[in-house]
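Bench notes, afternoon.
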Amino acid sequence: MTGHAWLLLVTLVVAIGVLVLLINSRLRFHPFAALMLVSVGVALVAGMSTEQIAESLEEGAGGILGDVGITLAFGAMLGRLLANSGATERIARVIVDRAGTRSLPWYMAGAAFVIGIPMFFEIGLIVLLPLIFSVARRLQDSGQVKGSPYVYLATPTIAALCTLHGMVPPHPGPLIGVEGLHADLGMTILVGLICAVPTIVISGPVYGRWIAPRLAVHPDRELVAQFTGTATTGTGDATTGTGTATAGGEGPRGAGTGKPGGVSLGWALAAVLVPVVLMLLRTIAELALAESSPVRHVLVFVGEPVIAMFAGFLFALFALGYRSGQPAEKVRESLTDSIKSVAGILLIIAGGGAFNQVLKDTGIGKAIESAASGAHLNLLLLGWLIALVLSFSTGSATVGIVAATGILSPMAGTGGGLESSLLVVAIGAGSIGLNYVNHAGFWLVKESFGMTLGQATKSHTAIQTLVSVCGLLMALLLSVFV
């Protein structure tokens, strides 16, 4: 390697250190502002002109927002429609309705798996809290579970939600990886799902059965009553689990679930699966149909992430929003609130896009590729490790994903193959691990279930780290067959 290449690598290391310092120091920089400041600093040190710097920032931020930002906005609105109409609770309750005590964690994982496809981790957990609390109260009264029934049910729920959030499109993290690494979307969905299933099994029901007897976790009675619709004295109908959270954004963080039973199971499942099915059909069409086929052109078009998510949103808007009987003005206000909730994530994505573009334009990406090739580092392990360290140190999984994607994109080649999809999954898995006190999800779980810091570490942090490691191992296992 040349002296200039080493200078670029040192610049990157210093930039990452400054990024972590800005976000975690007393200054408490917003990750978007920190990413933009570091991007400008890297560009100046690398010798880019002021005109080039401005163009690079605009191209990087605008490009990724065009590819991922719109999709994310539609996904947020789709999730809100599902929650407010009661569709998600309908799916969850149907799944666990006939489950026995020993099989309940598996059914809870299944419910979270379906609901977690279009929803962020935090929103999905809030939507499922009424179900967790009501079923856990029933188990607590029966005395059929050793230890905390809340941990018994929360563990598979957390495992399924965070696995999908980090490893499977159309969630924003994996979509960022798909775009930055030029991976095939349909193949990444399939690979992500293949890696997700055993990961959820090990990190959810299996780990939950082991950890539940070891943690004496019991949420605040008033909070349980709020989510289940029962009295704080515990005299409500806990055996039926019929309570619900308030609708239309009146519950915590505006994630009400609406009234169950108002939406049929078929409509609810269709609204969840429409965008995913369209994306998968695109991949099938590209593999099975000739390029001149009109059917292929149609399926490729509707399978584009932004079009597929838009189609899913429109379906949910008419099938769940207007049909629910809510006034049109209330539906619009709810959708507006859902966009506000992801504004910060959109900005972080834009800052990450700018940072990635600067890495490309300055030649740092090529220097990393040269150094990694000489050291013979496994690309999947390297991507996982970078995302893990940055996510843990900055408190943002999105920062970990966008930075790791930008650093490794020169080594991913032209993309499109199984290798690129596995790298997306590995980076996403890395961003999940070591979720601790500087992550919002950690505090949501801790406060919702009334945990001590140690209990939250043994449950939430351990679950997400186990998901991270299992996701990497699954990606490495599949890479053997490449």
